[in-house]
Amino acid sequence: MQIELKNLHYSYPSGGEVLKGINLVIGGTEPVAIIGQNGAGKTTAVKHFNGILRPTSGEVLINGENIETRSTAQWSKKVGYVFQNPDDQLFLESVRKEFEFGPRQIKMPEKEIKRRNEWVAELVGMSEKLDMHPFDLTPSEKKFCTIGAVLMMDPDVLIFDEPTCGQDVQGNHRLLSIIKALKERGKLCITISHDMKFVVSSFRRIIVMCGGEVILDGRAEEVFAQTEILKKSFVAPPPVTKVAQGAGLKKTVFTTEAFMEALEDERKV
Question: ABC transporter domain: which residues (predicted)?
Fold first, then answer.
């Protein structure tokens, strides 16, 4: 699966321009993180990936096909979107019904729905909660319920908007497991996040947005080495990375172990 943005511009009906000519290609199965301050245009950009929003000008291509050729409902079979607020997506009486609703709309065979339900429920930690009302779940569980409902549709691309918001350590570990499982199944995961510790633990490719433009795009080590550019986007590296940079270490590190190794290497020089 490949998503390509060609000179993408988007303006709100009120007239404010949000996206200012973005050119970007995202493909393969390597998870991608999109970061930047509030108002940078991250969510606006990814809402073009399945047609929730349509370009003011420019093009969005999914495997070479223009986004304008299909409806958002049709694209959602290929590109699933998990909103930041799960209450925006939950509307049925049980977790089970939330999981089964989408697949039935696209006429997925009942045997396949049952098979996927078992796998998805286990993956998102809902196996024992399938008959609960979603509004009786904790905020963290609601998030995993919405992730499960989107996974049930078996899209090629999964977009997570701030998935760590409201999560505890256990929830973050589950998110890491989900992203890993998706990659192993040949799916592309694209995540918007302000949690830099989560970003560097899960994503090798980082896209940094600022003022409606992409200002950095590369491997995590390369991106977080660009300290002056990151300051423009108001993105702070993870604490251990910041300490290492303050200590003058040449290598960009993301863990305490990597910091100690880099420090020892510097001493040997």
Answer: 3-236
Does the pTM surpass 0.85? The reply is yes
Measured CA to CA, the distance from residue 206 to residue 187 in angstroms comes to 17
Please list, in sequence order, all residues whose beta carbon lies within 8 angstroms of the beta carbon of residue 257, skipping any fewer than 6 positions away: none
Q: Which residues constitute the domain of residue 100? A: 81-154
Judge if 58 and 161 occupy the same domain. yes
Whether residue 103 sits in one domain with residue 49: no
216 with 247, same domain: the answer is no
Segment 28-46 mean pLDDT? 95
Q: Per residue in 165-202, pLDDT tens?
A: 888 889 999 999 999 999 999 999 999 999 999 999 88
* Predicted local confidence at residue 202, as pLDDT: 87
Are 49 and 165 contained in the same domain?
Answer: yes
CB–CB of 204/219 below 8 Å?
Answer: yes
Same domain, 33 and 122: no
* pLDDT exceeds cutoff 70 at 269: no
Q: Is residue 179 part of a domain?
A: no
Q: How many CA atoms lie within 13 A of 255 on its CB side?
A: 7
Least confident range of 29-43, 174-188, 254-268: 254-268
Query: How far is the CA of 244 from the CAs of 36, 89, 111, 195, 196, in angstroms?
Result: 22, 41, 53, 19, 15
180 located within any domain: no
- Is residue 161 located within the same domain as residue 72? yes
Domain count, the chain: 3
Q: What DSSP line would sit under 96-135, residue for residue? A: HHHHHHHHHHTT--HHHHHHHHHHHHHHHT-TT-TTS-GG
Closest by CA position to 162, among listed 98, 82, 244, 77: 82
